[in-house]
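Honest question from a wet-lab person: if I give you the sequences of every part of a complex, can you actually get the arrangement of the whole thing, not just the pieces? Trying it with mine:
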Amino acid sequence: MEIKHQVIVVGAGPAGLNAAKYAANAGCDVALIDSGKRLGGQYWRNTGNEVLDQSTHHDFDKGSLLMDAVKANPRITIYLDTPIWSASIIDQRVVLRTKDSSFITQRLILATGAYDRAIPFPGWDIPGVMTAGAAQSLLKGSGVAAGKRIIVGGTGPFLLPVASALAEHGVEHVEICEATGRLAWLPQLHVLLNNPNKILEAFTYFLTLRRNRVRMHYKEAIVEAHANESGVLRAVTVARINSNFQVLSKREVECDVAAISWGFTVDTALALSLGLSASVASDGSVCIETDEDQLASAHNGEYKIFAAGELTGIGGSDLALIEGAIAGLAAANARETKRNLFKMRRKARRFAGALQRVYPIPLGWKDWLTPQTIICRCEEVDYGTLREAERELSATDSRSLKLMTRCGMGMCQGRMCARNISDLLGSNDEDRINGTKRPIITPITLGELAQEGLL
Amino acid sequence: MIHFSFEGVQLEAEAGQSLAAALIANQQRITRLTRINSTPRGIFCGIGQCFDCLLSVDGKLNQRSCITEVHEGMVVQIQNGN
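Yes, you can. This is the full assembly:
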C-alpha cells in the first residue's frame, strides 16, 4: 500500500511532536510515524495512566499538552507501532518502507532520537546490569522498578532523574556513582547561570534524592559486575577513579541492578541510509549536519530532508523542541519568522556544549577491561580477540576488525559496540561514521520481504 | 491482571506492561542463553536497540521482550542459544 503525505515526520519524541505540530499549523498535511505504541518517544514515555505518568516525569505536563495538541490536530495523521525498515530516494521522492506499506513524501523530517551509551566492563553482560534508560523505560512505560537495590552509575545529568524516580517509586536502596567531580561545573558556571530553569531542575532532583536518603558519590564508577550461582547480578565493584578514569581504589556493593549511563548515542540509521552527511561531535558521537533551517539534504528543491533533535547532536529535550519547531516551519515553507527560535536554539546549544565539556569520557575505561571482557555483546567477541586481531591481523579499522572477528555483525548491527570499538581503535571520523551505517534499520523476516514482492 | 506463562509457570502481569517489565516484576531476569558461551542475558537497553532480551513468544523466536506488550495467555520461553 502506498501512503502519501505532504510532510512526513519520523519519531514522536519532543522534536518530532513539535515538528508535526508546527508543520500542520502552517497548513500542511502531516504524517507522524513512530515505532512505539504511544506518542512521546523515550523522553515522554508513558503508560497512559495519568497519576503514574506524573509521578515518573518532572515535566510531564508539557509533554502531555503537546501530545494532546498533536492528537487533536485534524491535519496530522498518526502512525504508531510502525517501524521503518528501509529508506531510499526513488524518482526524487523519499520512500520509507514498513512491513506492509510504503510512505512517500517530498518533505521528510527525521527526529529519530538517541539511546544510552554503555561502555563495557567485566560482567556488563550479566542480567541485572542494564542501561539507566532501560531502568527508566521499565518505570515510565510499565510502572515497574528494575530492582530492590540499584546502583546508578556513569556520568551526566541523566543519572539524577533516573535515581530520583526509582527512589520515589519506593526502591529500597538507590546509590549514584558519578564519574565526574563535584565541582566539574565550575568552569562552565556562566552557562549554567544563564539557564536558571536547569539549575531549578537539578535542585528539584537533589531535594528528592536527599529526602529519600540516596547517596551520591563523585569520581566513582562501576567497573565490574558479579553474578550469583543462577547467573544474575549479585554485586558490583565500584572504583574511585581519577579524571582519566584510571582506578585508584575499589569497594564491592551488593545490588540486584546496576543502571549505567555514559551519555547517549544518536540513532543515525535512517538518516545515513538516506545519504545525509554526518560529522563526529566532540564527544565522539556521530550526528547529522544541517543548515540553519535544520535542512540536511535537498535536491533542486524537489525533495527536502530535515533533521531535528538528538539526531543533530545530543542536546536534550528543550533543544529538541526548538529544532523540531524550526524544521516543521521550514518543511511547511511557512512565512513566519524564525528569528526568535534561532535565538533560543543558540542558547540551548551553548548549554549542550557546556554539558559535553563537564562530563567527558576519557579512554581510561579501557584499563577496566580484561581479555575475557565481552565487547560485542551479540557475537560474544571479547577484548582479547579484538586486540589479537588488531595486532596479528593488522585489523586497525572497524571494518577489517568486523570482518576478522564478527564484532558488530550481530542482531544489533553494532548499535551497542561500534562506538566503543572506534574508541578502542582510535578511529578517525570517516571510520566512526561508517561504523554507524545500518542498511536494515529494523529487523524484517524474509517472509515479510517476499510478501512485499521484494524477493 | 492478566496471566501468561514463562517456562511453563503461570505468572501475573498488568495489562499494558512490556514483557520485560512483567518478567522483572516476577523476579525473572534471564531471557535467553547466548549462542556461543551459553551465558544468560536479560534486558539491557530497554528500548529495542540492543537485541539482548530476545525470547520466544507463542513459539516465535527473537522477540524483543522490552518492546513486546504482555498479553493474556501468552506462552513465553527462554531462547536457548538460537
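Two things worth pointing out. Chain A touches chain B at residues 35-37, 42, 47-48, 115-116, 118, 125-131, 133-138, 141-144, 146-147, 230-233, 267, 377-380, 410-412, 415-416, 443 (CB under 8 Å). The longest helix of chain A spans residues 339-358.
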